[in-house]
Design goal:
There is one protein chain. A hairpin with a 2-residue loop joins strand 1 and strand 2. Helix 2 crosses helix 3, helix 2 packs across helix 12 and helix 11 runs antiparallel to helix 12. With 258 residues, the protein is of the alpha/beta class. It contains 13 helices and eight strands. The two termini are 30 Å apart. The longest helix has 21 residues. It is globular.
Length: 258
């Protein structure tokens, strides 16, 4: 599996296809030990580049996929191994849900608002009749310590095979890490805002928009108040990362012709 992982600006990312990622997930869940799964987009990559603690955290995950075509394209220039395709994001999380429903793995949904979770679970059960959502908890945090105690207690009682966390950073990463330490088994998957997609409250970008690397813009116009400055800042910083690391593709080019 060594050739299905790559190093991209210091982050260990999965470089294979969706099918290969699903097979790898199957092997991970068979180990019966807690495993962490997530995805990195441009925003998170810039966060990890600036924040060593966040970078180290994601590098300890068992599987981190690429969510965003700019990273796929640029991996051919800046990464140790090119990424074959965009695996991360709601489409892959739904692939895991379908896989879990077919193989009898129960789920716990954590994040978003109660009505969104209920709607997402209902729609997913309609698509995958075998889906077992054994528990759900909203992601509204007023007291982080109390919230964590309450959720952890419920998860230990429910004993889900797969936990999906749809919350903002950095609390989702904190919870995922804590769950791996405290739980005996279970796949812990950080899914970002996927519950909104599953519930039909938000839409994925059309294929052409995705191909043109404008998914961030499509998401931003759905939530301009929350995402405008976040995406402007992360996109500008990403350009800074590329320009200050231009030696990487230049070194590759020199090696190729010498």
């Amino acid at each position: 599996m060594s050739n299905t992982f790559t190093s991209f600006f210091g982050q260990k990312l999965f470089a294979g296809t969706t099918g290969e990622a699903t097979d790898y997930f199957d092997r991970l869940i068979a180990t019966k030990h807690p495993k962490l799964i997530g995805a990195i987009n441009v925003y998170l990559l810039t966060t990890c580049y600036r924040d060593r603690q966040m970078s180290d955290l994601y590098n300890k995950f068992d599987l981190v996929t690429v969510d965003g075509r700019p990273l796929v394209y640029l991996s051919h220039i800046f990464a140790s191994v090119p990424v074959k395709e965009m695996v991360g994001g709601p489409n892959f999380w739904e692939t895991i849900i379908r896989f879990g429903a077919e193989h009898g793995h129960n789920f716990y949904f954590l994040g978003s608002f109660p009505n969104i979770l209920t709607k997402a679970a209902a729609k997913l059960k309609d698509r995958y009749p075998g889906l077992d959502v054994t528990g759900m908890h909203h992601g509204i945090v007023e007291d982080e310590e109390q919230f964590t105690i309450e959720v952890l207690k419920e998860i230990k009682e429910k004993k889900p095979a797969i936990i999906m966390i749809g919350m903002p950073s950095p609390i989702k990463e904190k919870l995922a890490t804590l769950f791996r330490e405290e739980l005996e088994c279970g796949m812990i998957i950080i899914i970002g805002g996927a519950f909104d997609i599953f519930a039909g409250e938000k839409k994925l970008a059309p294929h052409l928009i995705s191909i043109l690397c404008l998914e961030w813009f499509y998401r931003m116009i759905q939530e301009p108040g929350r995402l405008f400055w976040r995406y402007m800042a992360s996109n500008l910083y990403f350009l800074y990362m590329l320009t200050t690391n231009i030696r990487i593709p230049l070194q590759k080019l020199i090696r190729k012709f010498t």
